[in-house]
Amino acid sequence: MPNVGPLELAIVLIIALVIFGPKRLPELGRSVGNGIREFRSSISGKDDEEEKRELQDPPDAAEQVEGEVVAQNRS
Q1: Residue 57, helix vs strand vs coil
Q2: Whose CA is closest to 67, among 58, 57, 53?
Q3: Taking a C-beta distance cutoff of 8 angstroms, is the pair 63, 54 a contact?
Q4: Confidence (pTM)
Q5: Residues 6+ apart with CB under 8 A from 28
Q6: In 1-75, which residue ranges form alpha helices assigned H by DSSP?
Q7: Tens of pLDDT along 18-71?
Q8: By the 8 A CB rule, do 17 and 25 touch?
Q9: DSSP annotation of 3
Q10: Is the Cβ–Cβ distance between 16 and 25 less than 8 Å?
Q11: What is the CA radius of gyration of the chain?
Q12: CA-CA distance, 53 to 50, in Å (whole number)?
């Protein structure tokens, strides 16, 4: 298996820049990073514990905002 050096990485980055453009490249990087982060948290199981806590104790501020939005839509 060949080693990937700095020249190969630079070539791949230049090709990605040409294909996706300079505006879209940071968005792709963020989405890849978020995907990796979600994958790691799903493997470790930390994300499941946080979701269970949120379902048991929803924040009060969010309930108030949702109620105000519903009241405004009915008017």
Answers
A1: coil
A2: 58
A3: no
A4: 0.45
A5: 16, 20
A6: 6-20, 24-44, 46-56, 60-74
A7: 998 988 988 988 999 999 999 998 888 775 566 666 666 655 555 555 555 555
A8: yes
A9: P
A10: yes
A11: 22
A12: 5
